[in-house]
Design brief:
Length: about 160
């Protein structure tokens, strides 16, 4: 498989994970969910990121997590980075959590995998050496529906 196709495949899997995350939270009705990646906040700039001046402007915000969750009672706000992984490898999860935490303190990581959905605060994941817990914020019935959907894209 050539490198452009592999890149596109990984990009598509990542977008599928983001859509599944967003749809699960919308269906649960427990949070307001906002897209927050720079490609959503600054779409016009994102297409010119190869230009030196634009790259410098985007440097500060390029690693913003993908979503902001706001609890219904408006008392809690979460920054969440969403990733797709075919297999969970603690070392890789640890790197993702460290990178997100370095740029955005108090952020969380959500990982979609054919084995299930995983979620945790990045600082907890780092403290646990890359171990991430099963996702528990949304009931299993909704999760199972979306896990079946995710597996359709894995074939």
């Amino acid at each position: 498989m050539n490198s452009n196709i592999k890149f596109s495949e990984n990009l598509i899997k990542g977008k599928v994970a983001e859509v599944i995350f967003e749809q699960m939270f919308r269906e649960s009705g427990k949070f307001t969910i906002l897209k927050s990646g720079y490609e959503y906040i600054f779409p016009e700039l994102a297409q010119y990121k190869q230009l030196p001046r634009v790259e410098l402007m985007l440097q500060n915000i390029k690693d913003i997590p993908d979503f902001i969750l706001i609890s219904d009672d408006k008392r809690k706000v979460y920054l969440v980075e969403v990733k797709y992984r075919t297999n969970l490898v603690n070392k890789e999860i640890l790197k993702m959590a460290e990178k997100t935490l370095k740029a955005w303190n108090h952020s969380c990581l959500f990982v979609a995998s054919p084995d299930g959905f995983y979620f945790g605060p990045c600082n907890t994941i780092v403290n646990n050496g890359g171990k991430i817990e099963l996702f528990k914020w949304i009931n299993n019935e909704i999760q199972n529906e979306y896990l079946k959907l995710l597996k359709k894209f894995e074939k």
